[in-house]
Amino acid sequence: MSGTNAASGAAPCRFAHYFVICGIDTETGLEPDELAALYQWLEADRQGRDPDTAATGENFEQSPLKRTFKSKVLAHYPENVEWNPFDQDAVNMLCMPKGLSFRTQADSREPQFHSFLITREDGSRTYGFVHTFYEEVTSPQICSAMQTLYQMHQAENPSSATPSSSSSSSSSMDSLASSLDEADSPSSSSCRSAACGGYDASRDTLYVSKALCLITPMPFMHACRRFLSQVHRAVTASLPPPLPLESYVHNILYEVPLPPPGRSLKFHGVYEPIVCQRPGPGELPLADFPLGQTFPLLGVENLVQLFNCTLLEMQILLYSQDYQRLMTVAEGITTLLFPFQWQHVYVPILPASLLHFLDAPVPYLMGLQSKEGTDRSKLELPQEANLCFVDIDNHCIELPEDFPQFPNKPELIQELSEVLLRYGISPVGGAPPTSVPTSTTTLGSVSVSTRHPGLKSQQALRELEDDGRNGNLGGEQLAVLELLQGNATLERLQALAKRTGVRVEALRGVGGEGEAQGGRTAVDEEELRNAKLNVQLREVFASRFTMMFADYEAFVIQSAPDLESWLTNREQMHNFDKASFLSDQPEPYLPFLSHFIETQMFATFIDNKIMSQWEEKEPLLRVFDGRIDKARLYNVRAPSLRSSNYQRCTILKESAQAIEQRLLKIDHTAIHPHLLDMKIGQGKYEQGFFPKLQSDVLSVGPTNNKWSNRTATAQRRKDRHRQQTEHLTLDNDLKEKYMQEARSLGKNLRQPKLSDLSPAVIAQTNWKFVEGLLKECRMKTKRMLVEKMGREAVELGHGEANITGLEENTLIASLCDLLERIWSHGLQVKQGKSALWSHLLHYQAREETLEQQQAESPVSNGPERRKSESSLGMPSLRESVIQDMRHIQSMGEIKTDVGRARAWIRLSLEKKLLSQHLKRLLSRQALTKKLYKRYAFLRCEEEKEQFLFHLLSLNTVDYFCFTSVFTTIMIPYRAVIIPIKKLSNAMTTSNPWVCVSGELGDSGVRQITKNVLEMTFDSAFRPHTHIDAMFKCQNLGKLTTVQLGHDNSGLLAKWLVDCVMVRNEITGHTYKFPCGRWLGKGVDDGSLERVLIGELTSPNADEDCGRGCRTPDMQHSPGQTRRASITSMGGRGYKPTSAQIQEAIGEAVNSICKHFHKPEKERGSLTILLCGEVGLVGALELFFHNGFKSARLFQKTVFVWDFVEKAVAYMESADQMGDMQETAEPLGLTCVSLCHYVSAINSSPRNIGKDGKFQLLVCLGARDRLLIQWLPLLVECPVIQRMYEESALLRDRTTVNDLIAVLQTLHDFPITLEASLVKGIDL
């Protein structure tokens, strides 16, 4: 995918950079593989054994034919290329990941093909293509060494002569790596004779593996595969090739250019021409790995899920016996990411020596070779909480828990399935292809010169019939089967050719590859078909992103004046308006998009977009932007871009035609291979042996080559241009440094260094992981704080203001993932899928043992803490790591350890105890040492302290991440009713009841047992009496109202209540519902029940300051002063000015408008905005109380409701007398509605008192948009003159008209009232 990057810049346009030969060094002889020894050292260290004793000595338990021996790079041409230095260790390790393997004439020796890639530090890639074959060992020293090793093996294991035991191994590498894969051996050991299991130099012929490799800047997989197979064919053919092999190698290294963009190129192998093509500037970048093989291996549905996991940057482990399958799936999945690029560790083939990289606590995409017969359950992986495990050979994947699905997934699967079916490929994983290809590219690589062709053919047939053992890819199986069935015929044709003197190469050309239409071979047709299928499948994915991100540019924030200042401040910059982008997307897309826009690949994409202001556009971005512009031309910003309707890809046909035209009409033909100026007599041809090539002719290219001159000129021009612009732009090294820092969160380890694998280097690698984790923790906590603090954060210069619940949930899920990765770094022994929960269980077991011991002895040390006694009589809440774990363990809804760990993190975060809990957990150092290796993050003291400090900063804001996610669980609540003792009875003879309501529902009426009096003492030892009740109900969410009442029975029925406190006993959130009013007949307004509006209380001041800070309540702006409510006792003597009253009404209405402008899921409680302390009802009460003649001498208090009732009585009597007939019709209807509503409220069975009735009238009037119609009626009513002073606001026409205009704005919104407010009202 990134081949485009690798080829750009300074790299000249050569098709191949190196030709490499790896194999056995006959001079040094047989050497045990150091990498296997290193792996044993690592494995011993992982299992807690002494690593130094584990890796010493030979492993004589395994047959030497199954052991790993050291391979070497025997030769590479040229010696070095300036822009792509040759990394000998890496190339050797990736060419022969298993080291050397030996075979005898009794074993299968089919050539194998695989590819690999090396990612350089700047992210560019170099590709390697490897053809491995077996060559007869002619060195007597090697043969006698093998004989000796076999005899020693027999002496150590006398029973190993039996065939069954020769295939078993007790090596600890069985579970993760194989020293020598048995996938290529015959289908069962029983088919061999006992003698075949061993080696006898006098009787057996020994063969050893050798690899030919091409290293190229771009992934021309098919062309390289064909070239290498033809070179190998030239070695095994009975006649020498037409030219010395040096001519062909020299030709591909120096005389074959990269095809220019949008063009095709033909060059010549040993026997047949080879064609390759490169996409044009507006097309998807080159991807030559056949998706037609990737999709059948996994099935469309699994592949879309894997694609989704890759986009969300999870850890992805591919698992297969076949290296080429690993590479095909890895490259296939990354090519589908266009226009994004994988930014983290990417190792499609992970050598056995690098298995410690599976411990990497960062996102990765790696491929692990499985040993045949290894059970997946025995594969111990360091972390699985966020792992997507892809078992390629068994066509199945294991997905992480709880991640969002890709938008329009069913429609996408349907479209992909239709494309595959058009090419005869089943969309179901593991299904055989529905149409058999006419031929395959493996044909050229099949060796036909064997000693026993008949036996060989039968053996190969048996192998292929046993699907578990073949190394071929799904789509090729039947074709290879047919080919091998014809082996004997090919052998006879070859013999006939020798006798008649016909050139065998020509015969092979005709018979081997088979002519198709227009002189093209069947292989050419197959390649064309693969290329067309590839591009069509990729276009389907690309069109999804074009639709999803059609408007992304509108949300990119261009804030820096120049590149240098942008790079310098990259970390502080806010580059993309995420909140606005999400609010613009269709609802079904939000779960996925909110996660995706937090990924590193999206951040890098936006970085590239911003940098394109100052420098050349990154190639993928250029193509993507071009497509969006094109879509706009057709769409003219049609509404369809916003909708979630699935739109199919419209350019499938033309994309396939572009490739077909290039492959059918060749644009360029490279220079033919030709004789070189070579020494005569060297490199003599010997059938079956790869000759030693003459290095002097291969170390330099031609000087008179047209295209190389053209390249040099272009290069000089580029150099001049660079020198001219150097003083204008940043120094390149400095820029690269900034870019690396700007983008690295684990990306600094995109490719492990393969050269030096000493334990010291591994320790250094782990140290980089520790630093990366700490940096990621700092970034994540900062992001969570900035998003949550909202407007205050913006004022402090931190970017966007609002955070949606969806975004918050995404950030918290991302924090859970980070904690899992930290806890799984450097684990000694893995237990369960969640490393964090496993640690917590160890801690719990240890603490519970200590608790039992302390229960027996009177001395105690307090590991747990209790919330300090509240002066309001709420009993203290027990708080400890164990207590919170028990809450989670009692939740039957959570079935897995990963789920429990995430729930525990959410609960601790909501309680503002996450940092404290984790500190407590890690304070048990003996436990941490037992569970973690010395290099683990959790054992790096300084980093651990910084990490806990970053988490502590999250205590400054309020999260409801537990309450809002686990909405169906049962939660115990404690309600405490606190009376005002000085003025009333501390107890009541009546039967009190409460009903608690929250955003998710209500508790129902809960009767409280009479006189459940509790006495508590505050910090000054003053006694407090209160009524305490516990009840359990389904999660109510954030609490909004409490209905409190009693039945007025007994002598002491009147009751003056100060407030009601309600606490969630799991999260510890405590809500205060102020009352300050009487409940009882004949006192106050005669109410027997009140609806109280609550708010979350701050923790006490004497608690640690980290917990004392909190986000301003959602309904109050941070700087707003609280107003005394008219409903409170103290409020009766409070006389606000008319300006204050009007301001209060304006703010109350404004808050309601803001409420409705938020996304529906983010709105919070409307009840608080209507009836809360600074709500609409309170503001209107102030308005109605202004100038109201309430206190009368020697008479009981008059309430606003009395005025309303008198006004309604007047209207009703006037109506009966006929006075109302003269009024306009609408006014008459309004009159009727007001009378009807007041009558309904008065006839309600509830005893809510006069102030409660007025509150209800205002709420119903606001809901039904009648308030502004009722106000003029009340103003016009003569009753107003008796009950209001001349200066009252209600008697000022201008003020009333202003009030009506303000209330008019509420008509735009659908106000709905909580059930607790309107219960019992029949309209």
TrEMBL record:
Ranges for the region named Disordered are: 154-190, 432-456, 704-725, 851-873, 1104-1135
Molecular function (GO) terms for this protein are:
guanyl-nucleotide exchange factor activity; small GTPase binding
Q: Which residues form the RUN domain?
A: 806-967, 1167-1318
**Which compartments is it annotated to reside in?**
Membrane
Name-wise, this protein is DENN/MADD domain containing 5B
- Segments of skewed composition (Polar residues): 704-714, 851-860, 1117-1128
**Domain named UDENN: which ranges?**
53-616
Give the PLAT domain ranges.
Answer: 971-1093
The answer to whether keyword Heme applies is no
State the signal peptide span.
none
Q: Which CDD domains match?
A: PLAT_RAB6IP1
Q: Which InterPro entries match?
A: cDENN_dom, dDENN_dom, DEN5A/B, DENN_C, PLAT/LH2_dom, PLAT/LH2_dom_sf, PLAT_RAB6IP1, Run_dom
Q: Where is the composition biased (Low complexity)?
A: 158-190, 432-450
Cited PANTHER family: DENN DOMAIN-CONTAINING PROTEIN 5B, PINSTRIPE, ISOFORM A
Query: What family is it from?
Result: Belongs to the RAB6IP1 family.
Q: Which UniProt keywords apply?
A: Guanine-nucleotide releasing factor, Membrane, Repeat
